Model the fold of this input.
Amino acid sequence: MKVSIVGTGYVGLVTGVCLAEKGHQVTCVDVDQAKVDSINSGIPPIYERGLEDLLKKHIGGLLRATTDLARAVQETDLSLIAVGTPFNGREIDLTFIKAVSREIGHALRNKPGYHAVIVKSTVVPGTTDGVVRPILEEASGKKAGIDFGVGMNPEFLTEGEAISDFMSPDRIVLGGIDKATIDQQASLYEGFPGVEVLRTNNKTAEMIKYTSNAVLATLISFSNEIANLCASINDVDVVDVMRGVHTSRYLSVDMPDGKRVQPSIVSFLAAGCGFGGSCFPKDVKALVAHGESMATPMRLLDSVLKVNEKQPAKIVQMLRKHFPSLRGVRVAILGLAFRPDTNDMRESPAIPIVGELLGEGAVLTSYDPAAMEEAAKVFKGQPIVFCRGLEEAIKDVDAIVLVTRWDQFRKLPGLLKGQRVQPLVIDGRRLIERSSIARYEGIGV
Ligand SMILES: NC(=O)c1ccc[n+]([C@@H]2O[C@H](COP(=O)([O-])OP(=O)(O)OC[C@H]3O[C@@H](n4cnc5c(N)ncnc54)[C@H](O)[C@@H]3O)[C@@H](O)[C@H]2O)c1
Done:
């Protein structure tokens, strides 16, 4: 199938390379000429495991990038909209969605034949039918359901695991105004046999996406609230508490061979310094705001956000227990991205932690295996040293703060062993065995 993807960020580019891998002819469209040039020369503008190999394999063949949206629409049968939908403090900002809908509508004006326009961006229920569809109809002078289809196909990929998530999806949700739109989308996903496909209307598809993120964010804040209480009770460690909780038969499945298997949702029942990224905070805020606008206050989700906003400050509080003044205290920040295996810094808990520590006069070094370039942009002009490796970052520091769950940080105990002066280690992700560190503090203990 010939498909155009409008907006070539995380979602657009991953979708593009993966659909090319499945044999579709893909045109990625973006307004950012530098991004388009980079993609066409086989260099991914983002870090994502496996992305570069797939991009190099297909660029110039089944995959190309362009800034020419009108032509891309003319030459394809289906367009996916994958532009950003940031939260502006009151609601999701639909500026990009509206602009792209208008441009696609204009392109459809002169296009003979049927075309499906599918929203892949995360948008609140009612947006595809109530905002995208009328703009498309007005700009094209055509009628949805007759001349073109309008659908909603939410994306569930997790950054850091985006390629494998896309290539082996747990579900495919196809929303649409009619059967023709959904059938057109179904052809796009023919190469994913055995995957559960949900056919539904656009509003339900939109709601599935928000609900999926909201439930995971809720588990994280729940765990953090429990962790904070554990920390104030003597001799209770949230890791032990959660181990006891995880073994509940509701959270561990007894297999016929007698083995117990834990579904991955259990990994969200763990304490840390808070969730971040481009989705959870934005999507939960958007859902709370949407509830407000529908006179249905989302009290639980409002609390989920409040718990999360306060969680990074726990790290600084733990440091203060050991250093009454942080002025001149040398601190290494390990991990800057919001999660491992990505360079995405959006809403990373590292941002408020670094901000607060610099504000208190701490002297900071930092290291992240993938996000150093992004971090240099985020912390531009701020006195934080970006190191080339873990060893360099922790050299001669008074304290180490572990912010991101990168696997390679597990070697910290080995690196510190034998050092004459042991730094304090603040484990913001409960990644390291407590007893392997001389001076240990962690969330929830
Ligand atoms: N990042 C994720 O993990 C993830 C996962 C699931 C869903 N989503 C949702 O997918 C959507 C996209 O997210 P993202 O992280 O890929 O965003 P992003 O900011 O990385 O990418 C958006 C891209 O759209 C481009 N763009 C903006 N206006 C355009 C226009 N008029 N024409 C063409 N291109 C234009 C931008 O230049 C940018 O490259 C959002 O709604 C997000 O909530 C994201």
